[in-house]
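Hi team,

Below is the intake form for FAD/FMN-containing dehydrogenase from Solilutibacter silvestris. Please confirm the fields before the structure is written into the shared record.

FORM ID: S-0412
PROTEIN: FAD/FMN-containing dehydrogenase
ORGANISM: Solilutibacter silvestris
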Amino acid sequence: MNATILDDLRAALPQLSLLTEAADLEHYGRDWTRRWTPAPLAIALPTTVEEIAAIVRWAREHKIALVPSGGRTGLSGGAVAANGELVLSLEKMRSTLEYDPVDRLLTVQAGMALETLRSIAAGHGLQYPVDFAARGSASIGGTVATNAGGIQVLRHGNTREWIAGLTVVDGRGEVLRLNRGLVKNSSGYDLRHLFVASEGTLGVIAEVTVRLADRDPPASTVLFALPSFAAIMPVFAALRDRLRLQSFEFFDACALKHVLHAGAHAPFDQPYPYYAIADVDADEAGLLEVFEACVNEGRVEDGLIAASDAQASALWRLREGITESLAPHTPYKNDVVVRTPRMPAFLAEAQSLLGAAYPDFEVAWFGHIGDGNLHINILKPAALSQADFVQACERATKLLSECLQRHGGSISAEHGIGLVKKPYLHQTRSDAEIAAMRGIKAVFDPDGIMNPGKVFD
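The structure came back. Fields below:
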């Protein structure tokens, strides 16, 4: 039956690249979560909006579920195809479509890697300021689908702020060209923003128009060694109040240990419990004044100010290399957010909860502390099976979700809900909100074929 269905698709779109080999099904059927066994029907690789629309219309006719796929760098199971879905990969849609130097708008196909888009912007003397460690693999469409954040949110905001227009194919097979790059557009609902963070549940993001910005001025990079987490927010406030921050990140000793094991060089002669790294618009003298004040107040134990671009890159590697260095330990990840003033109280409670629940597990803490976003990674002991480890860690997400409710936070800051966080959506969103979300999906995807089972059932 599957062969007959695929023959119908080949007949409808004879130029479409369609993959069915077992290795391809496994490769394209999963994301970075690695918690589900991929089992897609096949992998379709369209090259145009029209091909995407034809695939969706075919899927409606044959009642085949679709999983939109970009770089599959997601960490919440949003790109998993484990139940016979057709994976609709945008891997071949990576072209630049238009650059408008007057409005500073760049339109690209959604399969383009974030790093490539940023390089194109730099070639025009501008920047696309959304940035994170997976920039070389993550697609621009995927970053829109999850409203990706990254290391420059503090200064430039999330992906949503930079999306001037979208071309999408919804679950009806309709091509929608949303906002079309307009700065002002009060002609009814802005449907563009419904597709930002929709995780492929409303349709396929095919083309993206982004706004570009002036490049940031040269930055000074500084690494702080801190005696406790309680010192992080006062240091952040001192930098923010006296200098112009571009980014502010933190990581703990556990996270640094694994980056060092992966080949990075230790920044200090001795370890410290916590570290913060920042880029600021400041000459070294201004930064030194803030640094010395923090030392005198007992909030900083040691520090480094990068003397060159190479040293700045080496310091940033300590933060950006964390995810890769933890990967061999198959970490159970949580991506949470609270308002920054509530961060110290939330972290103290969260650390106490996880310490009591998992006294024998390593837990690495890091994140975009300037915007209240924490990444919490529980590392799997070598002797524990993956299934037993995941089962044990489900309790961690439940504990964190309840803690987040008490502190007014969210169970997902930038990774999305996908499959991993779906059981906890109700602790972030009210019943009325979830009902409205279901209603919106029913309008754009009346047959429920777009990434079913993700976000909510």
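SUMMARY LINE: The chain has a mean pLDDT of 93.

Thanks, M.
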